Amino acid sequence: MTDTTTIKQDRDAGFGDFVALLKPRVMSLVVFTALVGMLVAPGGINPFVGLVAIIFIAIGGGASGALNMWWDADIDARMRRTVKRPIPAGTVEPGEAMGLGIGLTLISVIMLFLATNWVAAGLLAFTIFFYVVIYTMWLKRWTPQNIVIGGAAGAFPPMIGWAAVTGDISLASILMFALTFAWTPPHFWSLALFVKSDYKDAGVPMLTVTHGRRVTRNHILGYTFVLAAVAVGLGLTSVGGPAYMAVAVIMNAWFIKGAVDIWRRTDADSDADSHLVERKFFKFSLLYLFVHFGMLLVEVTLTRFGMGGW
């Protein structure tokens, strides 16, 4: 946790500093997957209510980010890729980040409940609790499986979007959750392979630090096969169809090839060559999730015009 006595502000915090606390890039994924969950759910939702719901789901995601940065400021200060975040950079006080996170949590959960239903609001509240308490405060510093279990927090948004429309949970929404959940380990472990020293310096027990590169490569390959099965399974539900399935098969074949390429690397290979393969896989993983959820939107659009679905 942050040592609040060691952080001093170098300048007054600006609006951009508080926006950075909300992790806008992560928030974009939250918004997109929640929106897809909402749009593919049966029954539809009033556009204004849907917009309000998405705004408060996004705010809830931002609250998680602010509380994560508050608690992890000591880690962020020791990692090259996070040292410029607002708290370690000295532009935002830890207490300000904590207050912002708690305030946005209360606003987002209460307003989502008022706008939609208790199921969606309950899922959002649990998502924030899971990310901040279960993952950030506990798992991240305790187990090399931190990113596996903690990945559930980032997988809930499509379920929240679905529940905002239907007030329930279904097989399709569970598989949308599972798609993001299974995607998270290979995505983050491929990143950890070429930023291993960052996690080691920060004392974070990432799999690459505790068990080495060989074990991490094995895990990436294993989870990639699980991910492919989930992606295909999602295509067989009510939100899937031929268009989604065709793209999913191609994308997952490519993703498996990338995981196999990483798995084939050995410690005898040069770091430069290995990092090139790992970076390529990581960049493709960023595209992977957006394409799959994007194809769900394509599929539901085709279905509504009588051209999609099974």
Main sheet, how many strands, which sense, barrel?
none
Oligomeric state? single chain
Residue windows where pLDDT falls under 50 for at least 5 positions: 2-7
The helix fraction, in percent, is over 70%
- How many strand units? 0
CATH homologous superfamily descriptor of the largest domain: UbiA prenyltransferase
User: Could you say what the CATH topology of the largest domain is called?
Assistant: Tetracycline Repressor, domain 2
Instruction: State the name of the first-level CATH class of the largest domain.
Output: Mainly Alpha
Gross geometry: flat
Question: Using only CA atoms, what is the Rg?
Answer: 20 Å
Strand content: under 5%
Mean pLDDT: 90
Cα distance spanning the termini: 50 Å
Order of helices and strands: HHHHHHHHHHHHHH
Total helix count? 14
Instruction: Give me the secondary-structure category.
Output: mainly alpha
CATH architecture of the largest domain: Orthogonal Bundle
Tell me the count of domains. 2
Please provide a written account of the structure.
By secondary structure, the chain is mainly α. It contains 14 helices and no strands. The chain has 2 domains: 1-168, Tetracycline Repressor, domain 2 (Orthogonal Bundle), CATH 1.10.357.140; 170-310. The chain is flat. The relative contact order is 0.11.
